[in-house]
Design goal:
The protein is an alpha+beta fold. Helix content is 48%, strand content 14%. Strands 4, 5, 6, 7, 8, 9, 10, 11 and 12 form a 9-stranded mixed beta sheet that branches. Strands 1-2-3 form a 3-stranded antiparallel beta sheet, with no helix packed on it. It starts with a helix and ends with a helix. Its cofactor is Mg(2+).
Length: 501
Amino acid sequence: MQQENKAGTLWDMVARPWIDGRELQVVPPSENGGNTTVTQTTPKVRAEKRQIELNVYLDQIVSEKVPELERQERRNFEKVQAITNRLLTVAWRGNRRCNAYFEDPGLATQVETYQALDVDTFDCRMFVKGFEIPGSFQPISGLNHDVPPGYAFFCVNERFTRGEKISVRTAWQDCIDGDGFLMPGAIYPFFAKAIKDALQYLQDKGDKDMKKVLMIETKPSLVLKILTDEKEEKDGEDKNNTTSKSKESDSDEEEEKEEKKELTVNIVIACKGYNWPQGATIQQPLPKQKPYCELGRQCLADIDDAMSDGASMWYLEARPVSLSKTLQNSRCHANVSRNPVKCSRLWKFCFAPVEDHFFKTICSFRGGVGAPATVIRVLQLMIANGEVQNSWKPLNQHVLRTLMFWQFKKHAAKIKTFPECFFMFLGLLQQCLQGMSCPHFLLPNLNIMESIDSSCANVMKQEIAKILESLEQDTTNLLIYTGIKQRDEEPDQEQGETVNQ
């Protein structure tokens, strides 16, 4: 009996050995009339083996690389926040119009103001003050108003009495036009001048951090480019770390490569929205069938509760207007693009708070087994490691999250492991790039892929096909893509044995 158990254990251990580079399956004598045979594995067995290998490699990536990426993002965020807050505080000091129309930068909440689009790219929203009369301005959107999908006009409420309209117009006279539209084009000049003067003032005073800041005007928003010395920051962290001496052996090339990096901050004028806007379709990011419906309904209930408590679940942002002339609704795009006045009135919808609720919901699905956050981190590692080109930069957090929402909405039942989530996501991304079409999760008339250049899309399609093919051939390529292994390294023998076991 002991011999049978021992033999059974041995057969289990060598269930799928590798012989002469071919994937083979050993059939034990007990299952083949006393004869031992070796047959080629089925596609199902090969798929199971890839699942096991990828899960092992994922654990290694999560333990070694993801924390490093998160630390880097946290360092970048802290630097961006410190520099931007100091700049805005000086800009607002003594500036009548900025203080009259914008919230105090020092009192704004961190969650609403800052959002990470990537490891080194951030949004900073400067919110206009709350209106003294609730509902002073109302968003106007839709093709019947000649407003392109994803955008809105913001005008004085038509239902107000004449006296109320006069009061609103008087209070916001520097920011509206003669027809009562709140215009990013009217706010931008004094907004940009205040920040530009503050930056020049701090640079003239010899502020070392501000001397590394370059301001670029992208009407009606601003972009700050911040040069950061990553090596100095890491050295500062290592002073409090007794194990830092082991890191001093890094090569000079790596130090030079990491020495200076550029952080991007988009400073955006924004208005908070409270009542659900017309044209937006709220839907849960999971199927309506059991067992998913309860989690999805709870997500929508949390959003409703937050709105009832006075929280803003969407914003209108003053972004550079990029209107498509080739995709759907091209006539409306053309009409607006030919009219400078209409262009200067356009605000862009942003549903970042709602998307945060949705993303937390799908991350908690099946206890987080699907790991959508990890999939996005792996893609960010591939971009940061230089394994894919800079053409992937347009795939910011908003685009990646939208694709993930559609994936879980349609295929939640098929997502049980990280590899399934990862490969399904790459397939969905490839499909959307092929057709250059993917609807916004809340604005069905808005195609989020129209912001991606066709040449970038072609490069991404080719690289996705290359990634899928390479992982099909050898799953250890995932370690190369994420920077754990170098291309010229030999496979780790101990690691291979662990995977096979």
